[in-house]
Amino acid sequence: MSIRGPPLREIFFSVLWATLSAMKAFLAGLVIGIVLVPAALFLFVWLGYAPVSTKSAPLPFERKLAEIALDKRIDKEAPKDSPVQPTEPNLLAGAKIYVENCAVCHGTMTDAESAIAKGMFPEPPPLLHGKGVTDDPAGETYWRVSNGIRLTGMPGFSGSLKEEQMWQVAELMANADKLPQSAKDELSK
Prior knowledge:
Elements: H1 8-46, H2 62-77, H3 88-101, H4 103-106, H5 115-118, H6 138-147, H7 163-174, H8 181-187
Helix pairs in contact: 3-7, 3-8, 6-7
């Protein structure tokens, strides 16, 4: 007596059917991921549900993704060496430029937050209080001053300040924790 299994043809078609079923599930997942998710995001924005007010909470990962993008771009493009030395005349000049162009958002030595800063999102950091950006190399601050930061309210000043002036502000920020009295007095106005 011999034991016979199913014919080879039945085995082939059952394996083929199982494979096609798995492929259907994979393709359905692919369609959902490529078509439906972007469509849902588009509708979220199109129908007015995206938080665009400065009072709205940030979307999940919004702040982290922006930080990563900014850090990588600055690492790639920021100058490494400053052509301006942090001498008292340069720091005083930087303080005057800061008071005229930056203090309205970032505050002064005596006023940490202006009315404008309170209404911005993200809130501009008070650069002269706490750590500020004194731990950032001057080249990074120069890049921010020169280029601005998209969707934050931080303008780029390359069209309105000379390169030397932007470097003076960058050196001022890098040395804000050890300024000469003349620069401190200017920043207290």
